[in-house]
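Course assignment 3, question 2. Fill in each field.
Student: A.L.
Task: Predict the tertiary structure for the chain below.
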Amino acid sequence: MRFIPLVVISIISLRSLSFHQPAPAAFRPETEKDLTIPYSITITSKKSGAGIAETYNGGIETLFAGAHVARMRLVSLMRIQSVFVLIDKGLLKSVTIIKESGNIKHRSDLTPTQWMQYNKKYAGSACQFTRDTAMILSHVCKKAIISLKDGRQLTAYYTQAIQRPVFSFLEPAFAQIPGLVLKYTYTYKKKTITYTATAISNSPISADILALPAN
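Answer field:
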């Protein structure tokens, strides 16, 4: 989950990354099957008037997860942005952020330590699990409330039927959630932003979707 707007602070020198070829789907355990989940983005506000946040309204954020690499792609009127994470033996190896705005493109390659610093606002957050549930895409999802140290809160609905640890690397806000988040809501500058999963697919993901651009 990214608090809108997302700003890449620094551009780090490029490095080449190698990706392992995923094993055939028939021989991979459930947690390693390819997974694609698009999330719709809706923004509501009591006040009228266009702002930067409104350019994300109606946008789509898509999670692509393979065996060793995952990608979170945001497509909105404001920009197209992708976050790639490379994992090995359950550990985060590297993170790459690619942001496109018009003809301008930026790429940042981050180490795990730099990615932790980038998401430091989530450090020390408290997670309260409730008994409330919601049905999302035929999954019974439990409700959790995440309280950040600065006082902000996120409300998340997650399913334990889908376990994908890589999601916590892509979305550090949900590192304490014991399952996959299918819906979450938070408030930013008096606007309520909601991400809702609209489909779940285990179809094989095209290699070019999970591959980093050469430059």
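Instructor remarks: The CA atoms of residues 129 and 144 lie 4 Å apart. The first strand starts at residue 35 and ends at 45.
Grade: pending
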